[in-house]
Design a protein that fits this description.
- The protein is α/β, with parallel strands linked by helices and 691 residues long.
- The protein has 22 helices and 22 strands.
- Strands 6-7-4-3-2-5-8 form a seven-stranded mixed β-sheet, with no helix packed on it. Strands 12-13-11-14-15-10-16 form a seven-stranded parallel β-sheet, with helices on both faces. Strands 17-22-21-18-20-19 form a six-stranded parallel β-sheet, with helices on both faces.
- Helix 8 runs antiparallel to helix 10 (297-310).
- The chain is globular and about 85 Å long.
């Protein structure tokens, strides 16, 4: 049996597992021997020395070992089940409390030795709320005591002791079957542990240094394979047939520049130069254009569209929503129609006759630029000569969707736009195969937005402020997290509050309602009314997060702001401050969790989208960057792109260097790397490696 076959064997046949427990392990994502070996601890407890109970410090997390002195189970006046146990050692005693888990009393016995881990709190006496626990038995071996002990993520009906035992068996029996793909020369150069030793040490480290060395090796492996995939993609594109060489010296671009009613910012000018260099080169452009809300990305994109038309090509702009597509259509038509550039719109809700005429003009070449949603991807849509693809908010589309649009031309240039600022570390991960341009400063004249945080009970003061702003001629957004009231979540909803506000708070004002379940035509009608100032207050969900530009809107109120992500809150705030009036973002919230508090604090502290993006990544963790739509994109399971940024950069440098020296990884010492790439990223990426 080969190494791969052994590692792919079911974990069910490891001693102590069996069919019933195997089903429980499946809930943890453990199916094979390999899964067990790579099921890594989430933290460690140093059980060489426990903290004496008498020396515990309130506010700190601690691990204690003691004896159960007393047990108590009762029901509170509110019907809450409370299980409490007193645990003591030679230095003192503490209370351990669990809520709504009455069954726990069956497992605890007075006189039993127990290990507890949690944050230390103090009310009437020192206590731990819902601590992790593990009983100490006479059978305790060196695996569970007297060492640095791994603590794993659990699920119901499984405990640390059991999981630790079977992982130990897997490590002892099968660790040596894991092939080490990194060549010895590279391991020696970077001072990386052999893989077998790294896996042993990550589970059962001898000391803190051994654990750190093991972590470094495993994270490097993960980052290295990922960056190899990006390097191969970039290399693969560079070897494709020659792209379009666009004409830089025409009157059309010159006339476009002259017609602009404002001066470009230094960042915009710099990015335009980068795009020009790409579009005049023989290879296809693959560039990401990122910039904060209102930084002027659309003008830069318009410049690239004009370049394409000047060279005799058509261009396509794809947006994730009809509202955003319509916004781009209106903005670009205003800019480009005076230059005799024909701009068309293609969205799903269009009348059939209009759509057929648009398709005819697109195929014949009458239309120079087409703007649309995923409707652009339909098979019957043909362009005469596609030279440039612009994708707005790329992360809203899947990999396959984006590639379908590019295939409507031979090898068109490709420009991605995003208004969600991306930290450098994350950009290296998500868009590592693209060249990146950044617009940092906002255009002159943009007034800063004042941001305030208020509690739910102060909402009447907020309503009073709204009435004052509307009386001054301004317009207001009020955003809610839900469309309709939920039976399980005690949150205000847009539909319910629209009626309530209309009848109770703003009787004399004009209100509109906008949400994602409305028909496209109805949404367009509401937005047009708001833009024409026929609506004073727009009650909405996050459907307004992108694509709406109302210079007269000066107030953004977000209710239950703690329910929104930091990126969403920043995008919502960016809907205001687009005119000559002072603007105010009011976050109404009652954050209960630490992460929610951090998000609100971050919004109040800065309006810099790039700083907020870093903080958002720090608060949420890297998680699944690509989302379910990003088919074929991996999840980083071990490394953290913030904490391990230096390792990511190191891995990137080595990966790109390797692909430059051995573009198809054909050298004998790279055979295992090829194999690992295929195992990790699947058949859809095999084509990157020429056989």
């Amino acid at each position: 049996m080969s190494q791969t076959e052994v590692l792919n064997n079911s974990a069910q046949y490891i001693k102590g597992v069996g069919p019933a427990r195997f089903k429980i392990l499946n809930r943890l994502g453990i199916h094979t021997v390999r899964d067990l070996l790579y099921y890594l601890p989430r933290r460690y407890e140093d059980r060489r020395n426990f903290t004496p109970i008498g020396r515990l410090e309130v506010g700190n997390y601690a691990t204690v070992k003691g004896e159960i002195i007393k047990l108590n189970l009762w029901r509170s006046k509110r019907g809450l089940s409370i299980f409490k146990t007193a645990v003591g050692d030679e230095s003192g005693a503490l209370e351990a409390i669990w809520f709504n888990q009455p069954f726990m009393k069956r497992y605890f016995k007075v006189g039993q030795e127990i290990i507890l881990y949690a944050k230390v709190e103090k009310h009437r006496q020192v206590q731990m709320n819902s601590p992790e626990y593990e009983f100490v038995t006479g059978k305790d071996s060196s695996l569970h005591m007297g060492r640095i002990v791994p603590i794993y993520p659990l699920t119901t009906n499984i405990n640390q002791r059991y999981l630790r035992t079977i992982i130990s068996r897997a490590v002892e029996s099968f660790c040596s079957y894991i092939p080490d793909a990194l060549p010895y020369v590279l391991r020696k150069k970077l001072e990386l542990l052999p893989l077998t030793l790294a896996l042993r040490s990550i589970h059962f480290p001898q000391d803190v240094t051994a654990r750190a060395s093991a972590y470094k090796r495993l994270v490097f492996d993960e980052f290295f394979l990922f960056q190899l995939l990006l390097a191969l993609k970039k290399s693969h594109r560079a070897k494709q047939a020659q792209g379009i060489v666009h004409n830089m010296g025409g009157k059309l671009v010159e006339n476009f520049q002259k017609a602009l009613p404002f001066k470009l910012t230094p960042s915009q000018e710099k990015v335009i130069k980068e795009i020009e260099n790409d579009m005049r080169a023989s290879g296809p452009m693959n560039r990401l254009l990122q910039g904060d809300v209102g930084s002027g990305k659309t003008i830069v994109a318009a410049y690239s569209l004009v370049l394409s038309v000047q060279s005799g090509f058509q261009a396509a702009v794809m947006a994730p929503t009809e509202i955003l597509a319509e916004q781009h259509y209106l903005t670009l038509s205003k800019l480009l129609l005076p230059l005799n550039i024909n701009v068309g719109l293609l969205i799903g809700s269009m009348a059939l006759k209009t759509k057929q005429e648009t398709l005819k003009d697109l195929k014949s070449g009458v239309l120079d630029i087409i703007i649309g949603t995923h409707a652009l991807l339909e098979e019957n849509i043909q362009l005469k000569r596609l030279g440039l693809v612009v994708v707005d908010e790329q992360h809203k589309f899947g990999v396959i969707q984006r590639s379908l649009l590019r295939k409507k031309g031979e090898i068109p240039d490709y420009l991605v736009m995003t208004a969600t600022p991306i930290p450098r570390t994350l950009a290296m991960t998500i868009y590592g195969d693209l060249d990146i341009s950044t617009i940092k400063e906002l255009p002159k004249g943009r007034l800063p937005i004042s941001t305030f945080g208020v509690k739910n009970e102060a909402i009447k003061d907020v309503y009073k402020f709204i009435r004052e702003e509307v009386a001054s001629g301004r317009q207001v957004y009020i955003v809610y997290p839900l469309i309709n009231k939920s039976q399980t979540l005690k949150l205000k909803a847009a539909s319910e509050m629209y009626n309530k506000l209309k009848q109770e708070q703003f009787l004399s004002l004009r209100l509109g309602l906008l949400h994602g379940q409305m028909a496209s035509g109805e949404k367009e009608k509401i937005m047009r009314s708001f833009k024409q100032h026929k609506i004073d207050i727009l009650v909405s969900t996050t459907v307004i997060e992108v694509g709406i530009d109302i210079p007269n809107a000066s107030v953004m109120v977000v209710e239950h702001a703690e329910r929104f992500g930091l990126s969403q809150l920043h995008q919502l705030r960016g809907r205001i401050g687009r005119g000559p009036h002072p603007s105010y973002c009011i976050l109404v919230s009652d954050p209960k969790t630490e992460k929610a508090k951090l998000r609100i604090e971050a919004m109040l502290a800065t309006s810099d989208g790039f700083r907020l993006a870093e903080q958002d990544l720090d608060i949420r963790g890297p998680g699944r960057f690509f989302g379910p739509a990003q088919h074929g994109a991996p999840e980083l399971k071990i490394g953290n792109v913030i904490r391990d940024m230096e390792l990511m950069e190191l891995a990137r440098g080595e990966a790109f260097s390797l692909v430059r020296s051995d573009p198809n990884l054909r050298a004998p010492e790279h055979a295992l790397i090829r194999q690992k790439l295929r195992e990790r990223f699947g058949s859809e990426n095999i084509g990157l490696l020429s056989v």
